[in-house]
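Let us walk through a complete example step by step. Step one is to write down the protein sequence. Step two is to encode the small molecule, flavin-adenine dinucleotide, as a SMILES string so that its atoms and bonds are unambiguous. Step three, shown after the inputs, is the structure prediction itself.
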Amino acid sequence: MTPLAAVVPGPRVRLFACFLRLGCQQAKPLQLHTGASLAAKNHYEVLVLGGGSGGITMAARMKRKVGAENVAIIEPSERHFYQPIWTLVGAGAKPLASSGHPTASVIPSGVEWIKARVVDLNPDKNCIHTDNDKEISYKYLIIALGIQLDYEKIKGLPEGFAHPKIGSNYSVKTVEKTWKALQDFKEGNAIFTFPNTPVKCAGAPQKIMYLSEAYFRKTGKQSKANIIFNTSLGAIFGVKKYAEALQEIIRERNLTVNYKQNLIEVRADKQEAVFENLDKPGETQVISVSVEVKLSAEQCHRCRRR
Ligand SMILES: Cc1cc2nc3c(=O)[nH]c(=O)nc-3n(C[C@H](O)[C@H](O)[C@H](O)COP(=O)(O)OP(=O)(O)OC[C@H]3O[C@@H](n4cnc5c(N)ncnc54)[C@H](O)[C@@H]3O)c2cc1C
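Step three: the predicted structure of the complex.
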């Protein structure tokens, strides 16, 4: 897994959620980027790897400290995605297009955008290499390459995403499938999972569960839905005060939460999900996403009572 953002060896910095505003703050309309640099320099005071939320935010901050001409961002994608919106995309409240912007429009004005992929870091020589064979050196390096999605760690994925009932809000490729699955849902188990790995957003699995429940309620499907949250964690939230508030919502909405359950396999053809009990390695539980196998849901309720 790649860390979300690291600064080597620069000053202590904080990430700002308002990166778009920061990025455009000092720009007059005609100063905005129209495209990636063709003739980039080969040395920058601050070099930012990745033009996602972290990279753009840090470039805007560093621009104010060292001047725009001394900052560059290396990012291969023409399209920048603001991923927190994907929760709303999965719940049908926003279109996917609303989360994307041309990368050129979010690069802070005056900062160099090098359209390439980083393939190699050489911290001993303060330089990196790109996939178009460029060597670029830096005084300070900011790594904001995001997190790698390892769906293949779950047996049956990613090929299982071809099935209409499986979606994931963590990827631009699969987030719209969540909304489709909610719309197609008629009755039975609706399972939401929190994996046993670092994740982009720890709140995302719960957020989509609550939004799904609200959608089922509005559309009259709630009484036929058995909503299950299988989390690899041992608590619903790390802070007691908020955990208690969430437990209240869980009770009110009749949601089933099973702790220390890690999704290890998806059997898309059989519409089954297999979970391992992290407290008892080797002990598995199979939950059907079809109403026909009610036993699985009952097993789940028993887990909750333990
Ligand atoms: C469904 C969902 C809901 C979320 N909700 C929230 C929320 O409510 N609040 C919140 O604070 N956060 C939320 N997040 C998390 C937030 O989106 C991430 O923390 C944030 O995007 C991380 O920023 P980043 O720059 O580290 O990574 P990213 O935004 O993923 O950007 C990484 C960038 O690196 C680029 N890159 C990758 N490899 C290379 C390479 N080799 N060379 C060059 N560039 C490369 C990629 O193209 C990408 O542009 C949510 C995330 C998701 C998926």
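Step four is interpretation. DSSP finds eight helices and 15 strands in the chain.
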